[in-house]
Amino acid sequence: MVSIHAVLFDLDGVLIDSEPIWQRIRRDFAERLGGAWTDEIQQRMMGARTAEWSTALSELVGGKVSPESAAEQVIAALAEAYRREPPVIPGAADAVRALAREFRLGLVSGSPAVLIRLVLHELDLAGCFEVAMSADDVQRGKPHPDPYLELARRMAVAPTLCAAAEDSGNGIRSAATAGAHVIAIPRGDHRPDAETLRLAKAVLPSIKELTPELVRRMA
């Protein structure tokens, strides 16, 4: 029997309830410039790298702003919102601290590194993670396996010895394709479909259920 050596986390939708904030800020940005950030685009861009969603946003508004400018403005608005009231999911910080006492932890998110650092600082969780990285650091974001493969490489652990907590379809497919044991914690309006959820070894109703005991049983 293979034991789990590390637990890997997504950020948005797993530790913080940020997807509604991302959607509101990008929708408002697009509308101000005559575009429409739809639910379909939001679903497709969950877990996407900054270069991907900012390019989509720039194209939506007919190139009135560059992808770089779109990214800068959206990220600044998100940082302001997080500082004002970090949207932590109830039970998330406690779950991370409990797991950190028994397992090595890593984090990879489609969010840019500046937001990852801000959130972990605000939640006082930075010391729990051995590596916390952005999918901006790899060539292909979620749903490709690259983000989880790179996180595992930086932690010097085989992906097959890792559990991965994810909420979105893109994230679940990314972690599963990398070879990790996926723990799905779907929530909100953009839940993965049944076929995607079947890739997970466990599907939880809440991160409060993500305990060291559950991870040990996954081995």
Explain the overall architecture.
- With 219 residues, the chain is α/β, with parallel strands linked by helices.
- It folds into two domains: 143 residues, Rossmann fold (3-Layer(aba) Sandwich), CATH 3.40.50; 66 residues, DNA polymerase, domain 1 (Orthogonal Bundle).
- It is built from ten helices and six strands, in the order E-H-H-H-H-H-E-H-E-H-E-H-E-H-E-H.
- Helix 9 links the parallel strand 5 and strand 6.
- Helix 1 packs across helix 4 and helix 3 packs across helix 4.
- The longest helix has 18 residues.
- It is globular, with a radius of gyration of 17 Å.
- The protein starts with 5 loop residues before the first strand and ends with a helix.
- The model has no long low-confidence stretch (mean pLDDT 95).
What is the tally of beta strands?
6
Task: Please outline the major beta sheet.
Answer: 6 strands, parallel
Q: Helicity range of the residues? A: 40-55%
CATH topology of the largest domain: Rossmann fold
Q: Could you state the order of secondary-structure elements as H and E?
A: EHHHHHEHEHEHEHEH
Per CATH, the architecture of the largest domain is 3-Layer(aba) Sandwich
Order of the strands making up the biggest sheet: 3-2-1-4-5-6
**CA-to-CA gap between the ends?**
6 Å
Q: Note poorly predicted spans.
A: none
Mean pLDDT score, rounded? 95
Beta-strand residue percentage: 5-15%
Structural class, from secondary structure content? alpha/beta
CATH superfamily of the largest domain: HAD superfamily/HAD-like
Radius of gyration in whole Å, from Cα? Answer: 17 Å
CATH class of the largest domain: Alpha Beta
| Dominant shape | globular
Q: How many distinct helices?
A: 10
